[in-house]
Amino acid sequence: MQFLMLWHRMTSQQAPLVARTVAELKSHLDQLRIKRAGAPVVFVPTMGALHDGHRALMTRASQYNGISVASIFVNPTQFGPNEDLAKYPRTWEADLQLCADEGINVVFAPTVDQMYGDNPESTLSAGPLGARLEGAQRPGHFDGVVTVVAKLFDMVHPDRAIFGQKDAQQVAVIRSMVRDLELPIEIEAFPTVRDSDGLAMSSRNVYLSHTEREQALAIPRALVAADQAGSEGVQAVLEAATNELAGEPEMHVRYVELVRPDTLEPVPANFHGDALLLIAAMVGTARLIDNSMVTVG
Ligand code: AMP
Predict the structure, then answer these.
(1) Kind of pairing, strands 273-283 and 252-259?
(2) Would 212 be classed as within a structural domain?
(3) Which residues are catalytic?
(4) d(CA 42, CA 277)
(5) For labelling alongside 23, which of 98, 152, 270, 272 has CA 20 to 30 A away?
């Protein structure tokens, strides 16, 4: 029965149209917009090496019964000079299959040259929201993110774009970019998809050895411990998370912060309400981030 359902799903989905250039993308979208006038365009930007977290975003995109577009582009401008751009996993065939399985209509996979041409001079700034947390440790990262996302938005013209809450600061930065530039795009944040052991799915998890993966599990444990300490206040939440992480001395914690979900400002010690707990840590060569909402007080 399961096999039949899978077979039906595989045969009922049409292969996505693939665009390698902006001209191809526009031509595919023009065709689809004529065929399906009024259908919303729903967009999922990714860097490829797709996993079940990405898959969930694509399933969601297809649920709108509109024109679904995914991009696969490892954006060099959001990587720092000593980061993993060169070794970032690239799994094109499997990615395309996943997009097909999820009913994506168009896959846009441009080259760096298509996206940036020769010596581009103008970039967007993510502003103060992009300078905190991840931005403080990865200078220029969110400027690279908002610039590429704005360019992709301009090429795809989506009505809605779906991002993972796993990258909570990215969602906040993109929401503020969309607000500031008055782009008519609905931004949807999709809940974090986790492996059965609790680790948030990430393309970077392939860098982890078996032992490192065991160490990394302290991150989801810290989020659970923090949640359980919620009723005892801000200090207790932070201590619960920090203590759990300290149990894995091989892991290098980069930050543990409890912030207001919209502004990402640290909450005051007497805060009551919903706050976002953000964790970043290096495990081996992998930089891992995770977060969850905590009800404090
Ligand atoms: P990336 O390819 O890492 O740039 O991710 C593309 C999109 O997938 C981003 O909006 C991410 O936040 C989202 N994403 C990545 N991992 C997960 C996950 N485990 N659960 C939900 N969304 C995710």
Answers:
(1) antiparallel
(2) yes
(3) 54
(4) 29
(5) 98
Q: What is the β-pairing status of strands 106-108 and 17-19?
A: parallel
Residue 6: pLDDT band (50, 70, 90) is low
Question: Which tens digit of pLDDT belongs to each residue from 133-184?
Answer: 999 999 999 999 999 999 999 999 999 999 999 999 999 999 999 999 999 9
**Beta strands at 273-283 and 286-296: parallel, antiparallel or unpaired:** antiparallel
Let me know whether 37 and 90 are in one domain: yes
Query: Is the domain of 169 the same as that of 229?
Result: no
**Ligand 1 pocket residue status of 202, Cβ below 6 Å:** yes
Residue 143 falls within a domain, yes or no?
yes
- Looking at ligand 1, which atom is closest to the CA of residue 57? 22
* Gap between the Cα atoms of 100 and 105, Å rounded: 8
Tokens of 221: 């444990």
Decide: 200 in ligand 1 pocket, CB within 6 A: yes
Q: How far apart are CA 152 and CA 9, in angstroms?
A: 29
